[in-house]
Amino acid sequence: DVEIPVPPGTVIKDAQSGDIIKDLTDMDRWVFLKGGRGGQGNWHFRTATRQTPRFAQTGEKGTAMRIGIELLVIADIGFVGFPNAGKSSLLNNLTNARTKVAGYPFTTKIPQLGVFRQGDLDIILADIPGIIEGASKGAGMGIKFLRHISRTAGLAFLIDLSDDNYLLAFDTLSQELGNYAGDLLEKPKIVIGTKLDDPIAPQRLQELQTARPDLHILGLSNVTQEGLEDVKKAFIELVSVSGRNKQPIAQFDPPPQAIAEQRNP
Predict the structure, then answer these.
(1) Average pLDDT over residues 205-212
(2) pTM beyond cutoff 0.70
């Protein structure tokens, strides 16, 4: 037998049709292809009067298929935001991840994972590459990474308060998620107004909170770390509300922080 170990969250698809064959979770084992069955040679059919029979039984052929293997991120909280909203900086501030941070869009090109540890509680955070308007239709990096958000237990929307479109940002992001998969909007969520160290940001944070009283909105500066303790408390509460901690979190080998370090030498 040939057994291939894969991480939890791996999806096996038919390479031709794209149909999902199996969604593997922690400790799953699944037989995808069965080998052939051997036949019986002429020696098996010999008798006392026929010591060398001239016939045999052929075996059965095995199955063959081209499959695709895709790993979807499993995390407690996924960061959602436009490029340069401060997602990677927040991940670095809360975890041992060392995600690349720069002052230009799409610095993060693949999902980054980190573990936020608070006491005996481990919360896996996922920094998803920036979403732009039209992503659900293929704009920017398109839906390439939106699918990873489906595996998170909750969402943290990061809104850049230094951007003039800060009041519309949440609705635009929500629309893109809803266009991709409506059930994403049903996940527990919080909104974080970033770049609170910008002189105009505190006023804009108040305006955003006034305009959207239905949302849990916090302010944060990744530079001065103002508001970081409130964000930590909100993440712990978000995971509690999502119910993720009622079940064991799948174990990674290597662990998420090691994955992040390998991706960012």
Answers:
(1) 96
(2) no
